[in-house]
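Continuing the batch. This is chain 6 of the set; chains 1 through 5 are on the previous pages. Same settings as before, nothing changed between runs. Recording input and output for traceability.
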Amino acid sequence: MEKHRVVITGLGIISPLGNDVPTFWDNLKNGICGIDTITEYDTSMLPVHIAGKVRDFDPLQYGMDKAFVRKQGMFTQYGVAAAYQAMHDSGLLSQGENANIDPARLGVYVGSGIGGFEIMQREITKMVEDPSGQWISPMFIPSMIGNIAAGHIAINNFAQGPCLDIVTACATSSHALGEAYRAIAGGYADAIITGGCEYATIPVGIAGFVNAKALSRAEDPKYASLPFNANRAGFVMADGGAVLIFESLEHALERGAKIYGEIVGYGNTCDAYHSTAPRPEGTTQARCIRAALDEAGYDPEKDCLYINAHGTGTRLNDVSETLAYKLALGENAYKAHITSIKSMTGHMFGAAGAAEAIATLLSLGEGIVTPTINLDTPDPECDLDYTPNKAVKAPLTLGISDSLGFGGHNACLAFRQFKQ
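Output for chain 6:
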């Protein structure tokens, strides 16, 4: 079977660092922290008071009407908004007199790690208060289920091709991108709207993650998400949506599309070790990274490698991830430019991988490595070049973005600048 090359023709994002790609990218380059104190509800009884919240979000700017907003959860709204941006950026249209893609060849691979978390909290509270269930919303199920964001994105864009909601916790959107790549490369679609969305910074979400001993309890929001720092004490929860348009090279060239870059590799493995902890020696994570690098044709003599790390700021993750890079790259791990944008965004869960893929593409395009902010006390066990505090310029030729999810799910994506 002929393998089709796959390029990226559109980007969209809703995030703690901005609700459009230029703002997001500018804040990343300048080391701006999007984590702040939670003000939407009273956190005085909770042990955590900070998160990477989306600010100034107006869903009506992204093609949604008031009735839709009233019925749908925030994760769906974030996903629909990011897809709206990405589709407009790409110029793809599947209906009308200016249509430039067959709707049967346009797919949607958008996932959420949790789904309608706030809807579940609200409706279960009603059920506890009145066990008859008479006050449960008829929209409870069709707005809570994790696949509904993908469904609405397909409806809005008349996308009748393959449609999947992939759920692999923190690796969700990286796997969505990887599987979208394989679907287009295999000839099953001409373009796929792909990414992830999440809204989990609610009281029950904070209580659940903090009791799992995963969250930072830092009081200072600007010094809380500390990947690869000896002072790190857990990740910081965040919300958002991130979507990319993957398209076959032939289709993109035929319609004269703008091209951000090319996806050239994908790895997918499982630790098969623990429900929340990564495999400590990094072996399965390293195989995932190596699979993406091998498919990308990585040449340590010719490539200047950029790595957008998972980099959550938990004790176990950062050390095992560092070991994985060393296993996958050998001594070349010390030459790689590595960063964790979670130091600025917090952890966007199901949207994290797609947001980090966008950052990777933009880093390759401009030759800029965004910083890992607050890296003032590097962990001696995390001794690679994690780009502390300030962005640097570098002649990047290959970028990878890796994600690790609860359940041991590992994903790695590889990108290059587009060259015909």
